Amino acid sequence: MKIRDRLLLAAERQFAEHGALDATLTQIRGAAGASVGALYHHFPDKADLYRQVWANALADYQKHFWAVVGDSADAREGVTAGVREHLRWVSENQYRATVLTSARPPGVRESESNRRFMSDVTRWWRTHAGYEVVRDLPIDLVYALWLGPAQEYTRQWLGGDMRIAPAEVAGELADAAWLALAADRTAAAGQLSE
Question: Fewer beta carbons below 10 Å: N end or C end of the chain?
Answer without folding.
Answer: C
